[in-house]
Amino acid sequence: MSVTVGVIGLGAMGSAIAIRLTQAGFDVIGIDLHERNMAELEDHGGRRAATPRAMAEEADFILTSLPSAEAFHDVTTGQTGIAAAGRPGITVIDTCTLAVDDKAEAARRLDDSDITLLDCTVSGSRATCLAGDLATFASGDKEAYERAADVFAAFANPLHWMGEFGNASRIKYVLNYLVCINNAASAEALAYATKMGLDPHQVYDLVNTSVARSRIWELRAKMMVDGDYTTSRGTYNISRKDAKIIGAIAQEIESPAPVFTAALQQHYAAMAQGYSNMDTASLYEIYKRAAGIDDIVEPE
Asked: Are the CB atoms for 4 and 54 separated by under 8 Å?
């Protein structure tokens, strides 16, 4: 008998995880606000559910990949949310990047219905997920984590157990802190090279042979030299949402963040110039424009 897994939020990452789950043989049910994302799931053998409550009436595990705390609370404990199904024993694998307090509140309310919420986060791109190489972090109830082992195995590689609830979110803050900085650093360095008259494609290849290479450079500098900011389906979500959480924590614990803050300003500049719904690799265009370099890829 197949195991049913629900996926709520079929954006760039949620849809990739759902596809991996269908490929692994799970019965996958999905929910998303966009019809094109639902159609994509069905094309890969998944099914659609009308509401999170309807999904929870048959799913053994539910994975959430949502853009905001408001959406997360509505999906988990709202009137048509998971808890409203009144079905005990479900494990919710939450992969959203949210404040720990928001996740903890939902976990407490779900626990009243004998539903376990795991604090989980992921690090990677849609492409790495589809390739089965999505770094995944999980924390919370160890028994629930172990029950979900086969679900994690479909998309998580490597998979890290982080222990105390909230630790998966905390390591994600660190990772996104670095991603924000490295996005800007890669764009800035490539614009610098371009302004000097070097061939950007050659620069990309040469950096990849040196100690200056990074995963962000490999991923995003390739998009920069190709001028392709849409295929990845990435957006400025780190700048729009996650950076607020990271910055608030830095202020609360009195941890200096000057480099992060400076890099974030460039992300905000890109959003202000219309690149919000394109991959953050488009930061290259912001630096090119500032440096007076022609041949700018304009926002769509």
From this structure: no
Within 10 A of 30 (CB to CB), how many other CB atoms are there? 27
CA atoms within 13 A on the CB side of 88: 4
Show the tokens assigned to 121: 């986060």
Range 4-165: architecture per CATH = 3-Layer(aba) Sandwich (3.40)
d(Cα 37, Cα 96) in Å, to the nearest integer? 18
Tokens of 87: 């079905």
Structure tokens at 193: 């090279």
pLDDT greater than 90 at residue 147: yes
Q: What is the pTM of this model?
A: 0.94
SS3 218: helix
Q: What per-residue confidence (pLDDT) applies to 1?
A: 53
- CB hemisphere CA count around 11 (13 angstroms): 15
Please, where in the chain does CATH 1.10.1040.10 lie?
Answer: 169-291
